Amino acid sequence: MSLPIEIRLQVTAIVLAEELSFTRAADRLKITQPALSKRIVELESRVGFAIFKRDHRTVELTNAGQVFIRGCKDSSALLEKAVRLASATIDDSVQ
Amino acid sequence: MSLPIEIRLQVTAIVLAEELSFTRAADRLKITQPALSKRIVELESRVGFAIFKRDHRTVELTNAGQVFIRGCKDSSALLEKAVRLASATIDDSVQ
DNA sequence: TAAAAATACTCCATAGGTATTTTAT
DNA sequence: ATAAAATACCTATGGAGTATTTTTA
Questions:
Q1: What is the distance between the alpha carbons of residues B73 and B71, in angstroms, rounded to a whole number?
Q2: Which of A30, A77, B28, B70 is least enclosed, having the fewest CB within 10 Å?
Q3: For residue B80, which residues of chain A lie inside 8 Å, CB to CB?
Q4: Which nucleotide lies nearest residue A21, CA to C1'?
Q5: pLDDT along chain A (95 residues), means of 10
Q6: A69 within a domain of the structure (yes/no)
Q7: Rounded to an integer, what distance in angstroms lies between the CA atom of residue B58 and that of residue A53?
Q8: How many structural domains does chain B have?
Q9: Residue ranges with strand state E in B1-95
Q10: Residue A70: what pLDDT?
Q11: Which residues are within 7 Å of strand C by their Cβ atom?
Q12: Could you tell me if residue B95 is inside a domain?
């Protein structure tokens, strides 16, 4: 149950991986660019490796970043599925 | 990418599901019992169903709760695995 | 010099703590 | 009366915003 990688940060990384631009990703996330920047710094420090490679002109995923992003998506899909299944569960003991 | 169920809340529910006592679970999580109580209320309101059934004497998982907890564990295990795999990834583009 | 990310700072929302109440046995 | 969870209220931390700086193309 080790390191907690908040959903907020996972979603941030997923969107940035799609946009490959801090400015556009921040727009989509409805936060400011500095806030997004800080989220990514925080996330990378949590996981302990670089997820994005940026050089003031371009943003791209590192190899580790690609593996991580895929994991985030899979993990989140699994949870969504469980919540849907749970919602549909007939529950004699509800409330 | 719908509803964000924070890891903090997932971990809380997992521990409470193991302890079946707010007092003991709060201890293990190193938070106070009222804080734990509020986390569970928040989590249940997020997912939209009761995860625990409590009656001042006992705490137990609802059926939906069991499905949900399993999903949390599976989802978290998947993410952990991805992080480990990503960490081990040889990355020419690191830093 | 322009375009994009990073940094500095300030502020506020919310997560958590303390104290208390409620509830059932 | 006791034991455990819920509620009320208050506080403080950290996440987000504005302004600015840095970087390189």
A1: 5
A2: A30
A3: 2
A4: C4
A5: 86 97 96 97 95 91 97 97 94 53
A6: yes
A7: 51
A8: 1
A9: 52-54, 59-61
A10: 98
A11: A 21-23, 33-34, 37-38, 40-41, 54, 56-57, 59; B 8, 30-32, 34-35, 38-39, 42, 55-57
A12: no
Each residue's pLDDT expressed in tens, for chain B with a length of 95 residues: 467 899 999 999 999 999 999 999 999 999 999 999 999 999 999 999 999 999 878 999 999 999 999 999 999 999 999 999 999 998 755 43
Taking the C-alpha atoms of residue A67 and residue B87, their distance in angstroms, rounded to an integer, is 9
What is the residue whose two structure tokens read 């590192």?
Answer: A62
For residue A82, the chain B residues in CB contact (below 8 A) are 67-68, 70-72, 74-75
Q: Which domain holds residue A16?
A: 7-88
The answer, as to whether pTM is greater than 0.70, is yes
Going by the DSSP 8-state scheme, the letter that residue A17 receives in this structure is H
pLDDT computed for residue A95 by the predictor? 35
Residue B2 lies in a domain: no
Domain holding A33: CATH number? 1.10.10.10
In a domain, A2, yes or no: no
